[in-house]
Write a structure and sequence with these properties.
With 249 residues, the protein is α/β, with parallel strands linked by helices. Helices cover 42% and strands 14% of the residues. The protein is globular.
């Protein structure tokens, strides 16, 4: 059996909801889900495991995993999901860089490189990277990184007014920054599957929203949550990548 540890915040919930619908396709895999909402997750390294930083976190992780709440080093693969890795943050940074440099004499290619570097520097200190750092202190197993879902157009209607240059360069810049960060931890970044994205490629299709589209704009969470169908597609993509990697002898 291949054991997979999934760590994240509330966005991991969609993957857990989607697991029953694809479980039969992965009979040789066992999955454990460890989730704590928002940015509340925190670990301390203790020997060959990650221990929750507080009792409250332990209770959340124990509840979602039905285990002790500790992250052990004996899993065959790890998936880190959400935890503030967000396209919305990248979008804001990219637009700010373009606004700053658009009146300069730099070529568009150089401006894009600068914007990509700024996205990297903005995302690198966030919670997901802290978890990656600590995982790498206890394991050399493959780690896969999944970002917070791409935004709902209902939450960010300004996206429709973006110019052609911004629309064509923003998502590739975000992916490059995420891939670079993942590589720094010998991890693999998994982009959101294209079958879940909308007419504007850096949004998520409305049929995958957890809430009805007319309620999404009023959702209290910073990022739109997705449903089990979305989770099944994203999780299947990750598990297929894990299955394709030869097992260690």
């Amino acid at each position: 059996m291949t054991s997979v540890c999934l760590i994240g915040n509330s966005h991991l919930g969609a993957l857990k909801l989607g697991w029953p619908s694809i479980e039969a396709e992965f009979p040789q895999m066992e999955l454990d889900f460890y989730a704590s909402a928002g940015d509340s997750l925190g670990f301390v390294v203790s020997g060959n495991r990650l221990e929750p930083a507080t009792d409250a976190i332990r209770q959340r992780l124990a509840y979602t995993s039905e285990k002790s709440g500790d992250i052990e080093a004996n899993y065959d693969a790890y998936v880190v999901c959400g935890l503030l890795l967000s396209f919305v943050r990248a979008m804001q940074s990219f637009r700010q860089t373009l606004s700053t440099l658009r009146n300069s004499e730099q070529r568009y290619r150089d401006i894009t490189v600068a914007a990509t570097n700024n996205i990297h520097d903005l995302l690198r200190p966030l919670l997901f990277a802290d978890v990656l750092t600590k995982l790498r202190q206890i394991t050399k197993a493959p780690i896969y990184l999944i970002a917070t879902p791409l935004p709902a157009l209902e939450r960010h209607p300004e996206i429709e007014k973006y110019g052609g240059y911004l629309k064509s360069t923003l998502l590739p810049a975000y992916h490059k920054a995420c891939e670079r960060i993942a590589q720094e931890f010998d991890a693999t970044f998994l982009a959101q599957p294209s079958e879940t994205t909308g007419p504007i490629e850096f949004t998520t299709r409305k049929e995958f929203y957890l809430l009805p589209p007319h309620n999404v704009a009023e959702e209290k969470a910073v990022h739109t949550h997705m449903n089990a169908a979305f989770g099944a597609i994203v999780l299947k993509d990750a598990l297929e990548r894990i299955r394709a990697v030869p097992s260690s002898p």
